Amino acid sequence: MKVRRLFLAGSLAVVLACAHALGAASLTVGTGNDWITMGFGNNEDDGHSFSVFGAFEADNGLAAHLILDGFTDQRDTATRYSTLAFTLSYPITHRLFPQISLTVQPAIGTLLAGTLGLEALQNLLHRILGRDEVYASEAYEGLLAMPVFSARALLSAQSGHQHIEAAITLQAIPAWQRSMDLSLLWSFDRLITVGLGIVCEQSFDDTAVRRRERAQQTGPYLLTRYDSSLLHTSWTIWGQTGFSWGTFGFDPLAFGQTPRFEHSDLSIIGGIYYDLLGYQSRVSGLVYKHLLVQVHYSNGPVAPQSTFRRNIGLWSVGWRWEPRGATSLLSPSLSLLAGAKRYNVLQHIDQGLVDEVHPTIGMEVGLTLGSSHPLIVGPDAYRLAMSVAVHYTLGSVSVPSIHPRWEEIARPLSLLFGLVLYIDHDLNLH
Asked: Residue 252 falls within a domain, yes or no?
């Protein structure tokens, strides 16, 4: 335990010391979890389960990353293990043509694997979220300490605000694993990124919980990423397994940026809703002029201590109206939407019982708090809105009944109350 604490404290000290000495351009801290599904991933809450991370990048490109990950095998062996990785990297960029560049970024670091006490942290999060706690024995006695070597090559082409990139990342951890990641990415203004990729991995450790983790995060994948001045989120889903992973982080150094927001070209939505049964759902989306693209998703046990796990997603497009130049304390908005809603239920983590998709229509009414933006960070402006949503799903009465609580969850009409964050972006398009 003393060695683990010393390593973690030492790694944090190195990150903070480097950030201070080199004048960090960014310092991001955040967390990752498999419950960020966007309605697609099945949220089995097994395998790769949880992470916390910190990263800094200096003005010259030197970067340090510290990532604590937790892995569990609840199905077969009831075991878990954790990893703590610290890496340093530096990019070397060569401009091939005016709009095309090649960047090679080597990295070196250290990985600790074994018993790192992440069970307490995971169960603390579960208690906060009202989820069942997970207890499992440690898969390894003590700790394994291994060097990490990696290199990333990125070919980037730019046209206005758009970037097309092809990347390859090679990583080697002797006596543990080696991997190759190939990806093709498109981004707009480095704000929104979507991409396709494939991961190939060879492991030198055949422990059961390692096999489960590798099976989840291998093969082809789809990713999305959002990078504003303050907030950074990502989501990845692997096509062969349906496993998904999402992250959320923020950069406290962003508050030091000069405010330069003048008007909104694009708005990003993020929020939390609760229905009348007390179940929580998350919303992510974007607004461009009057066009609304949005995802509602909810997951977790159907009922406390239940072996049934729900994963519900509503993907929709719609029209959003909001008055401009309002001076009142509360500014209204109205959204009309249509889309598809997925009902998914698993039993005992991996046994599929329900997986149906039905058309859905809805209306959402919001009240923005204040007529102006209370917070501006660089080119981004932030505002909060209270929201009431009504969704009606056609044909949901045919969804199989597997639990009395599920019958209430899967009813056609849903009424939700939420708090939504709107991030308005000035992309300097005008």
From this structure: yes
Domain assignment of residue 402, given as a range:
266-425
Q: 76: domain CATH number?
A: 2.40.128.140
**226 plus 284 within the same structural domain:** no
Residue 359 sits in the same domain as residue 292 = yes
Secondary structure (DSSP) of 363-391: EEEEEEESSS-SEEETTEEEEEEEEEEEE
Please tell me the distance from the alpha carbon of residue 226 to that of residue 285, in angstroms, as a whole number.
11
Are 349 and 46 a contacting pair, CB within 8 Å?
yes
The domain tally of the chain equals: 2
Return the amino acid letter for 70. Answer: G
pTM equals: 0.88
Report mean pLDDT in 10-residue bins for the chain, 430 residues: 48 53 78 92 81 92 94 85 95 95 97 83 71 77 92 96 96 94 96 96 87 88 96 94 93 91 92 94 95 95 86 96 69 94 86 91 90 85 94 90 88 95 85
Rounded Cα distance, 308 and 304, in Å: 10
Asked if residue 413 belongs to a domain, the reply is yes
* Max Cα-Cα span within the chain: 64
**Alpha carbons 12 and 320: distance in angstroms, whole number:** 44
Pairing of strands 100-114, 79-89: antiparallel
Q: Same domain for 283 and 250?
A: no
